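Structure ticket #2291
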Amino acid sequence: MSRIRFILVAGIAVTLSACDSSGGADGMAAQSPVDAIVHDAPVQAVPGAERGRVGTYEIDALVFTGPGTWDSEIPGIRDVLNQHGVSFREVGSDELNNMSVDEIARFGIIIWPGGSGGTETASLSTETKARLRQAVQERGVSWIGFCAGAFVAVAPAPAPGKDPSYGIGIVDGPELEYYYLEYEMANQLDVAMLEHTFADGTKRDILWYGGPVTPGGPGSVVAKYPNGDAAISQVWAGRGLVMLVAGHPAVPASVAGELGVTDSDGADQDAAWKLIEATLAQRPLPAF
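Resolution: structure written out below.
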């Protein structure tokens, strides 16, 4: 039976949660995600775009470390990448703002941590956001976003030369909504350890810290929350494979313990690697 174990963290306001869309904080053969995935309104694929990278890459991963990123998650991501021999570079906002599309395309995947999505993207120029979209959609750089990194990745496509309505808009679609624990329960819980059910039949306890419902649709939902909502989704944005992860599987169990929740299976960083590896390789995971 699916289970939810949650706790309200005293003294932590919702705006300080690890993911804030508004600016506060294999066992089976892979199935390809659909070009359009749905959550209230369709997420649109880039018309006429082919899938996959253009050319090769020199460094496996770009890890964003600019203002607003959750400082407890970055070391966990670093540990996962080091454990699996993945080459990476940590890039802050100033450096990213000075990078060309060609320089961004030197990386195989962009890893965007959780934190304050509004703060993360406020540190980037309009031109940088456009270059990130171009790197993914046209050059085929992969993207994986955890919590705020999922929130900022999805927005209606902006007019040329303009910012999206929110975030970066790697994927063209309606802004993501919070999972119901954030706003429907009396105490407005913002941290919990939730059992995720993956399409390959596995189950993992993953830390949720104010994360979204990710886009749904046949072939796109990699894992579901206990209530059946989408918790991890994959979609092609033009040439780039995008993985949208509502929770924080890379965060060590010790951090979860400090927040007052317990990871019973201890497999979260294994799940983080599974998601990163598939996205980097552009090998979609089994999906509902």
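Closing remark: The first helix runs from residue 74 to 83.
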